[in-house]
Description:
alpha+beta, 6-stranded antiparallel sheet, 27% helix
Amino acid sequence: xxxxxxxxxxxxxxxxxxxxxxxxxxxxxxxxxxxxxxxxxxxxxxxxxxxxxxxxxxxxxxxxxxxxxxxxxxxxxxxxxxxxxxxxxxxxxxxxxxxxxxxxxxxxxxxxxxxxxxxxxxxxxxxxxxxxxxxxxxxxxxxxxxxxxxxxxxxxxxxxxxxxxxxxxxxxxxxxxxxxxxxxxxxxxxxxxxxxxxxxxxxxxxxxxxxxxxxxxxxxxxxxxxxxxxxxxxxxxxxxxxxxxxxxxxxxxxxxxxxx
Length: 260
């Protein structure tokens, strides 16, 4: 684990104008000017590994890994496409109207449960590796990741855009666990060494400071003691009324049945 501090947090940040207070939310709504705290780690484990969505997503990951990274005869691919088309039709016919409700994460709960459909940590999302996270004993988050063929950028290396997405999620989850959620303002990434595919990697993230509504958070990805990439993010706390306006505007742009 790297013990390096990324430097003075929040340099150049200024106090934001006063605004109404709000409750903790997965969308960056929190009590204004709350202290950066480290909560007692929740009980280990996360909910619902027997959730049927998780089971379906796991099989889709297996298929994606084979499709992207393994030589498969064209005839087998054509047969699989026909079978998958039938399954997709079955899913669409069984689906109810609208979209599945997103539940607000519990900051006191296990961080793996914050976003079950996340493309990074969500066991219900086949796009996710998924990255496994938990609250670290000393505060912040720690976790592991294993990126298979579908996450490849340069040969044998994880795509840099995937690493950026993972950091955005990891730092945001660390903020939720610390009681200071926010929306990403800036995310600065230093790619120190190429990150290898199909290798067990270690992740860490922690809040390092706060000025007004700006929260500074650091994260790292390592293989053993070798720090491969690190990131510093500035996250902006949103008061409920402002974020409600954002969600309402986005919902108005959604096709019928897909609005949140």
